[in-house]
Every structure is written in C-alpha cells, then in structure tokens.
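Work through this protein:
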Amino acid sequence: MNGKIKYRFTSKMWQHDSPGGWYFVSLPIIISKEIRENLGWQEEGWGRMKSFAEIEAVQWDTAIWFDSKSDTYVLPIKSEIRKKTGLKVNKQVEIRIWI
C-alpha cells in the first residue's frame, strides 16, 4: 500500500454507456472535493491520480480519474476485481482507497 490518506465510502458500481464500456465506482462529491483541493497537485494527465484500493479484502494498485461532467473522481473496476468480489452493476459496495 503506497497511499497515506485513507478514504472509506459506500457506492454502486456502474458501466459507461459506450459499447464495451468500462466499469466504475464514483467517489462521493464531498470526498472528491477534499481530494482535489488538498491533493490535486498530484494529478497526472487527464486528472489521473495514483491510488490503492480495497473491496472485500481484495486490494490492488490503481488510479482514480477526475470526471468533470459529474464533478467527482471515478475508480475503474477491472474484470479481475469484479470476478474476485462478485461485484455487479448497481450493487452497493464498501470501498477503501488510499492516496
């Protein structure tokens, strides 16, 4: 685990509406605002920020991306993580991320 600041929240996974769209979890707006205000300097291209995530004891290195349309960060959920956790679209899930 590389991040030092931990955030914990509950959200639902959703799929982008493009063909073969990626799966994401949106961070709460209040958490996104805090991250952007205090850690925005760490963003790389396209609003990408390195992070570490955990869902149901499955941990992985990842990144969150700032989505200006929704004014929040989104966490992509890879197929491997969805399979290991049994995560489905619109299912509430507890997530922990470290930045």
Observations:
- Strands lie at 6-15, 23-26, 48-55, 58-67, 72-76, 92-98.
- The chain has a mean pLDDT of 92.
- The chain is about 20% helix and 45% strand.
